[in-house]
Specification:
Blueprint (H helix, E strand, L loop, with lengths): L10 H14 L12 H8 L3 H13 L3 E4 L5 E4 L4 H17 L5 H22 L2 H14 L6 H17 L4 H22 L5 H16 L3 H32 L1
Antiparallel strand pairs: 1-2
Length: about 250
């Protein structure tokens, strides 16, 4: 574990990075007990409060867990893709909100990844997942469904499509695309979209999955991407026209 610290950078951040790197490199294995705060403070030549702050950073990333009592301390956590979803979504949301990713880039990435799930989802989807997607379509087709509820249902529909691929790595990587990028797309395009058109495309997706027809599923997703891009172009054009008039 690297213990030399730079005075120009925050010490607790460097300590957290050093411990994280040791975990990634396998120097600290799952369920291994980390040295005590006092031992880490001596090792890095810092105060115990600085070590404590570093451990808090690691715990926030789910890399370690702490236990109280005689056999307590800080231990290397056993991470799962499900546990990492929230962090992936938060990071993606922050990147988008800070304008680090534009709409076109987000749209391209989201649908490219989602289409990659289509063949696997067509082969592996369960009856329960099809039922869940149909339930979201019913919700989307209800005139009483609010815009906010429609957007939430849209996310749930695509989350189920991704999970139907039964591949936790794809589900993890698409967590940000579906649950961060998609709400952004909905927020920008909801004033121009046709619910009927989206519901029709969602039905085509479920029909493809139900028939285990990967080509039909991919074609429906491609149609949804084209429609989403067209909506964005229309919204941007309308905004430009309003600015010109103003």
């Amino acid at each position: 574990m690297e213990t030399r610290l730079e005075t120009s950078r925050e010490l607790s951040v460097q300590i957290a990075e050093a411990i994280r790197d040791a975990i990634v490199a396998g120097q600290l294995i799952v369920d291994a007990r980390l040295p005590s705060e006092a031992e880490l403070a001596e090792k890095f030549g810092v105060s115990r409060p600085t070590v404590r702050e570093a451990l808090k950073r690691l715990a926030a990333q789910n890399l370690i867990r702490t236990q109280r009592g005689a056999g307590g301390g800080a231990f290397v956590n056993r991470l799962s893709y499900e546990q990492a979803h929230a962090q992936q979504i938060t990071t993606s949301t922050l990147l988008l909100s800070m304008n680090r990713v534009d709409f076109e880039t987000a749209c391209e990435a989201r649908f490219a990844l989602e289409r990659a799930c289509a063949p696997l989802a067509a082969a592996r989807r369960t009856a329960g997942q099809l039922d869940a997607m149909r339930a979201e379509i019913t919700r989307q087709g209800d005139a009483a469904t609010s815009d906010e509820a429609f957007c939430a249902s849209d996310v749930a529909f695509h989350r189920t499509l991704v999970d139907a691929a039964q591949n936790p790595v794809l589900s993890y990587h698409l967590a940000g695309a579906v649950e961060a990028m998609q709400p952004l797309m909905n927020m920008i395009t909801f004033t121009a979209r046709s619910r009927e058109r989206i519901v029709a495309l969602h039905r085509q997706i479920v029909t493809g999955l139900g028939a285990r027809d990967e080509a039909a599923t991919e074609a429906a997703l491609a149609g949804l991407e084209r429609y989403t891009r067209r909506l964005f172009a229309e919204v941007m054009s309308a905004r430009a026209a309003r600015l010109t008039r103003g």
